[in-house]
Design brief:
- With about 170 residues, this protein is mainly alpha-helical.
- The chain has one domain.
- It is about 65% helix and about 0% strand.
- It has 8 helices and 2 strands; from the N terminus they run ααααββαααα.
- A two-stranded antiparallel sheet has the order 1-2.
- A hairpin with a 2-residue loop joins strand 1 and strand 2.
- Helix 1 packs across helix 4 and helix 2 runs antiparallel to helix 8.
- The longest helix has 25 residues.
- It is flat.
- Bound molecules: iron/sulfur cluster (2 copies).
- One iron/sulfur cluster binds next to loops.
Length: about 170
Amino acid sequence: MSVKTAEDLFQESLTATLSLFKRIKPKLERNEDFKALLAELMKGLEESERAYRETGAYLVCRECARLSRHTCCGHDMELEVSRELLIVNLFLKANLPQKRSFPEACFFLGPQGCTLLARPILCRNFFCPWFKERLPIEKLKYIQIRQEKEIISLFKLINHLKTLLFRVDHSY
Ligand code: SF4
Ligand code: SF4
C-alpha cells in the first residue's frame, strides 16, 4: 500500500470541500444570516483593500514578487485555509487554481497573486521585515486599524458556517 503524501491529503480535502460546497450551496443561498455576514465581510474587505492601496502597501508586495524574493506565500500556507474559508471563497466565485502553479509556493498562489478573495487572517496581518522597512509605522498602524472590520466579520462568518456544517456533518 503506497503512503499518501501531504499533497495527496491536501488534494483529497480540497475535493471533499468542493463536493460539500455543491451540496450545501442552495442551503447557504437561503440562509439570511449567512448572507448578512457575507455582506459585512465584503464591506470589511473593501475597507482593507482601500487601506492597502492608499498606503502603497500593494506596491511593496508587488515589488517583492517582481524581484522573485522568497515571499510569504510559501508551500504549506494553503493549510491555513480552513474548509469554511474555502466555502466562503467558493460562494464568492473565487477563481481557484486546479493545481499548484509554483512548486515552492502556496497552492492558492496564481501568476497574478493570491486567488482567494477572503484570505486567512495570518496572510492579512503578516508584515515581513522587508515590508516593515518600506512603510512608516503610521501607515502600518493605519492598515491594521482599517483591517479590523474584515477580521471581525470573517471571524463571525466562519463561526456561523462551522455551526451550519456541524449540523450537516451530523445529519444522517
Ligand atoms: S509581506 Fe513581505 S514577503 Fe510577503 S509579499 Fe509582501 S513584501 Fe513580500
Ligand atoms: S495570501 Fe493567498 S497565496 Fe499567499 S499564502 Fe495566503 S492564501 Fe496562500
